[in-house]
C-alpha cells in the first residue's frame, strides 16, 4: 500500500539536497575571491570541499556503528539540524574580519557529518516509502535536488562576488547569501521534527516487506562491521561500488576545479569565474532534467547495467572533449562538453544507485551507500589533489582531465566483464506471481 505522505517526506529530503549542494558548489567558482578575503592560498580554499570528503573517509564506519538501528525519522531530523549548524558557522566565518577561515572549516566539518548521516537515506527514503515501480523516480527526484542546488551554487555566487569588487562588499553579499540558506535549513529542520514518520504502516512492496521483517530482528553493533565485511569481500559489490564512485566523483571535480582550470587554459580571457560558474550551472541543470527524465525509463526497463555502462563511456568521452577544447582554445566546445557531461551524469546517478541496490539485496542500502560515500571521497580527493598539482606544477589545463578519463574508462571495462545479478527484481517478480 502507498501513502500520499511519501511525497512530503521526499520533498523534505530534496530540499536538503538543494541546500547542501548549494554549499558544496559555491566555493570552487570563487576560489580566488575567497583566497583574497581570508588571505589564504587557493589550495587552502579547496579544503572547504576536501574537509567534507575527509569526514566521509574517517567517520563513515564509526557513525554507522553509532547510528545502527536509528529510525528514518531520527536520521532526517539529525542531518537537517547538523546542516543548519554547519551553514551558520560558514556564515560566521565569512562575517568575521579576521580568523574566519578556521570557523568556516569547522562549519564544513559539520556539513560533512550532515551529508554522512544523509547519504544512506537517499535510497532508504525511496525504498521505505515508495513501491518498486516508483523507486527509481523517487531517487531521481532527490538527485534533481542535488542538481538544482549545485547549479544555483555555481551560478549565483560568481554573480554576487568577484575579484574586482571591494572585499567589504563581497563579504556582505556572502553573509547575506549564507544567512538565507541557514534560515531555510532551520525551517526544514522544524518541519522534519513535526511531520516526518519513520515508515508507512504497510510496506509499499514485497521486497521492502522482506527487508523490514529482517530489520525487525534484533541486531547488535557488531552486525554493522559484519555487513561491511560481506560487501567489501563480494567481488560484484566491489566492482559496482568502484564503478559508481570513480564516475560520480567527476562532477564534483569539475565543480571545484573548473574555474582554476579555465584561468590556466585561457590566461588572457576576462571573467573566467563567471564562465566557469555558468558552465557548471548548465551541466548541473541539464543533469537535473536528465536524472528526472531517466527515472521512469530506468524503472520501466530495469536495464541498470547497460545504462550505467553507456553513461560511463560517455563520461570518459566528455573528458577527451574537454582536453580537445583546451588544445584548440574553444569556449563553445567547453559549453557543448559540459552539456553532454550533465546529460550522462544525470542518467548515471539514478541508474548506478539502482544497480548497487540490485547487487547487494537483501542487505541494507544503508551500508552500500555509506561505503559508496567513502570510496567517492577517496576518488574525489584523488582527482582534485592530482588536478591541483598538475595545474600548479605542470601548468597544463589539458593534463588535469587525463586521470579521471583513465580511471572511468578502466572501471567501465571491468564492469562490462563482470556478471551482475538482479536480486531485488527477482524477489519482486516472484512475489507478484504468488
UniProtKB/TrEMBL annotation:
Alphabetized UniProt keyword annotations: Membrane, Transmembrane, Transmembrane helix
Q: Which residues cross the membrane?
A: 7-27, 47-68, 75-95, 101-119, 174-194, 238-262, 307-326, 332-350, 371-391, 397-417
Where mainly located?
Answer: membrane
Q: Which GO terms describe its cellular component?
A: membrane
List the Pfam families: MFS_1
Q: Where in the cell is it found?
A: Membrane
| Any one GO molecular function term | heme transmembrane transporter activity
The UniProt entry's GO biological process terms, in alphabetical order, are: heme export
Give the bilayer topology: Multi-pass membrane protein
Q: Which domain of life is it from?
A: Eukaryota
The molecule here is called Major facilitator superfamily (MFS) profile domain-containing protein
Amino acid at each position: 500500500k502507498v501513502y500520499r505522505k511519501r511525497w512530503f517526506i521526499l520533498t523534505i529530503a530534496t530540499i536538503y539536497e538543494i541546500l547542501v549542494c548549494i554549499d558544496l558548489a559555491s566555493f570552487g567558482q570563487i576560489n580566488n575571491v575567497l583566497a583574497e578575503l581570508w588571505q589564504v592560498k587557493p589550495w587552502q580554499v579547496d579544503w572547504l570541499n576536501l574537509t567534507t570528503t575527509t569526514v566521509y573517509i574517517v567517520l563513515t564506519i564509526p557513525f554507522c556503528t553509532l547510528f545502527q538501528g536509528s529510525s528514518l525519522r531520527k536520521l532526517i531530523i539529525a542531518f537537517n539540524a547538523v546542516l543548519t549548524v554547519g551553514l551558520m558557522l560558514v556564515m560566521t566565518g565569512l562575517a568575521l574580519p579576521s580568523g574566519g577561515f578556521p570557523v568556516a572549516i569547522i562549519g564544513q566539518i559539520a556539513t560533512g557529518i550532515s551529508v554522512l548521516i544523509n547519504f544512506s537515506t537517499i535510497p532508504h527514503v525511496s525504498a521505505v516509502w515508495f513501491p518498486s515501480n516508483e523507486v527509481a523516480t523517487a531517487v531521481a527526484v532527490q538527485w534533481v535536488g542535488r542538481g538544482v542546488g549545485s547549479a544555483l551554487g555555481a551560478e549565483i555566487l560568481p554573480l554576487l562576488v568577484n575579484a574586482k569588487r571591494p572585499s567589504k562588499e563581497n563579504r556582505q553579499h556572502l553573509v547575506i547569501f549564507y544567512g538565507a540558506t541557514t534560515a531555510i535549513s532551520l525551517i526544514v529542520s522544524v518541519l522534519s521534527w513535526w511531520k516526518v514518520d519513520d515508515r508507512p504502516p504497510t510496506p509499499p512492496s514485497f521486497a521492502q516487506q522482506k527487508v523490514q521483517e529482517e530489520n525487525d530482528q534484533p541486531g547488535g553493533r557488531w552486525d554493522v562491521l559484519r555487513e561491511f565485511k560481506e560487501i567489501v569481500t563480494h567481488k560484484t559489490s566491489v566492482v559496482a561500488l568502484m564503478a559508481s564512485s570513480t564516475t560520480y566523483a567527476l562532477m564534483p571535480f569539475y565543480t571545484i576545479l573548473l574555474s582554476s582550470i579555465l584561468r590556466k587554459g585561457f590566461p588572457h580571457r576576462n571573467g573566467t569565474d563567471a564562465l566557469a560558474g555558468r558552465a557548471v550551472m548548465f551541466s548541473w541543470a541539464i543533469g537535473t532534467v536528465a536524472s528526472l527524465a531517466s527515472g521512469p525509463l530506468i524503472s520501466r526497463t530495469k536495464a541498470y547495467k547497460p545504462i550505467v555502462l553507456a553513461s560511463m563511456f560517455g563520461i570518459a568521452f566528455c573528458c577527451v572533449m574537454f582536453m580537445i577544447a583546451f588544445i584548440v582554445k574553444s569556449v563553445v566546445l567547453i559549453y557543448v562538453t559540459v552539456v553532454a557531461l550533465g546529460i550522462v551524469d544525470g542518467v548515471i546517478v539514478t541508474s548506478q544507485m539502482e544497480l548497487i541496490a540490485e547487487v547487494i539485496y537483501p542487505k541494507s542500502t544503508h551500508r552500500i551507500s555509506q561505503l559508496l560515500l567513502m570510496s567517492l571521497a577517496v576518488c574525489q580527493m584523488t582527482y582534485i589533489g592530482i588536478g591541483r598539482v598538475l595545474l600548479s606544477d605542470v601548468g597544463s589545463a589539458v593534463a588535469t582531465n587525463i586521470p579521471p578519463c583513465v580511471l572511468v574508462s578502466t572501471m567501465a571495462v571491468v564492469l562490462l566483464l563482470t556478471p551482475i545479478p538482479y536480486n531485488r527484481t527477482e524477489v519482486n517478480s516472484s512475489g507478484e506471481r504468488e
